[in-house]
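Support reply, case 0932

Customer input (verbatim):
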Amino acid sequence: MSFARSTAILLVASGFAFPETKLLKNFTLIDGAGGTSLAGAAMVIVNGRIQWVGSVSRLKPPPGAETVDLTGRFVMPGIINLHCHLGNVVDLIEDQKNFTRVNVEKQLRTYASYGVTSVLSMGTDQDLIYQIRAEQRAGRPAMTRIFTAGRGFKGKDGYPNTPATKGIPFEVTTPQEAEKAVAQLADKGVDVVKIWVDDHLGRQPKISMDLCRAIISSANKHRLKVAAHVFYLEDARQLVEAGLHGLVHSIRDAEMDSALIAAMKKRGAWQAAATLAREWSTFVYARPQPFLDEPFFTRSVSPQVVATLKTSYRNKVAADPDLPRYSGFLEPAKRNLKKLADAGVPFGFGTDTGPPGRFSGYFEHREMELMAEAGLTPIQIVTAATRSSAEFLGVAKDLGTLEAGKWADLIVLSKNPLESVTNTRSIEMVLIAGNRVN
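Our regenerated output:
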């Protein structure tokens, strides 16, 4: 046995691990920071983190690196979705009994295959989520990263009220109960606190603003951000005045006014997620849709589900008495997002994927297209889905841009997403913590 081989065996036996080094080169870098792209770029990844990134002309190739030539490709950070719901749906059936490790991890792998490398699950999680999250954070995940709001807050017997939510969100009735529940969430280390502030078009009880203020106040004591599901302009106004950190839907009942925009800027409140694809999903299935046959969609959806979407599910949506109203909510949601962006209010990216008909992975790319329809530029959209979303989560030191020291969560594309956001569909490779996941 050679000296080198015997030394290597001794090092492994003693617990010493050789670094895993990857070298990506000859690509165009879109780093997520909002600046210009860099052609002829290279990146050195060691044990899942970016050790060096820059022009290939300045590269000093590390010895023994696994080298990947990406000539003609574009590399951007992984997409961060600030609004999803994990684990409760199998095909088109929503039930909290579906919240199993197998189902959660299947959905995380689906997200990853579409370049969605981190998700924030918003208020419908069971305690299993903390275990999976802890396992991820103890090492280098090979599927989409979990952030969670744990159990959200809603009105007593109020919205949302589905088989998946029964008994999961807190239904507090006093400020004291709110404080106790927030303390429980803080003990579990939630990443944000979620409140639903909605009456489902007047059909279900809505949590009181006094309770919302108590939740926000308690969360502030624990240094936790609070994000709210909202629908109405007036609710958003009062929540922002109470210190809310982020809206996770666009306002849909009215046009944003200058007073609310000014209040959001003054208080640092975010449009954390616009969820335009959520509004689109409420009416789009009522008519035949070409996207149901697109390979980019069908690769993660079973033929049985596609067939159901074209038949009984279409009939169900078409028979909804509120269908004529649903399509009217998307356009004001778009206009309000554009107003906030133009005014300089910070905004992130989110879709509300997970419930039936809002498909993980595919809908994130559809969200980008709807943001473009709202008037945002490709670089605004890419930045929102990467750096800005990491900033809202408070994890920008590790995620969101492709810089030295950060995790190598990235997407390799064959087309330039800064020319058109539809090019985010041209996925060739996805890395999470340097691990290839697709």
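We compared this against your earlier run and they match. Two observations from our side: Residues 1-16 have pLDDT under 50 and may be disordered. The longest strand covers residues 21-29. Please reopen the case if you see a mismatch on your end.
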